[in-house]
Amino acid sequence: MATTKRMNSGFSDRVMGLVKSLRSETPDCLAAGVVDMATGMLLSYETVDNHPAEVLDLLAGATLDLFQGRTVVTIEDIFKERRGVSSDQHYFQEILVNSDHLTHLFLRMNENQDVVAVVVCRKSVNVGMLFAQARRVVKEHSGI
Prior knowledge:
The protein has five helices and five strands, in the order ααββααβββα. With about 140 residues, the protein is an alpha+beta fold. It has a single domain (about 15-140), classed as 2-Layer Sandwich (Beta-Lactamase). It has a five-stranded antiparallel β-sheet with strand order 2-1-5-4-3, sandwiched between helices.
């Protein structure tokens, strides 16, 4: 995606719309955000809690590591080679992480592999519904 597209106000409005939709439409959602993998920046977020800026910055860095860390990229390259895939699309599209009290879902945008949506929910969330709703919202905002 061209840098100019990421920086224009229309893009910013679409990112904020995605975050608002994720926050309101995914079950038991406590926070949602969007990370730009090209820059490692958290583009937008909404949360029910106040978090220190350094925690939010770490979320963006952790998302980058999850999807594009050196070992992950190596695994993707090996899978592509063994399967004869020549596409530059990333192999890993969604990652679910459970902590003691929370469930974190990370989803790459379908059309823009450099943008990842993040949803944080209570651990009691119905994971099937979480995936279904988050995927639906991401699909509806596919122009990002």
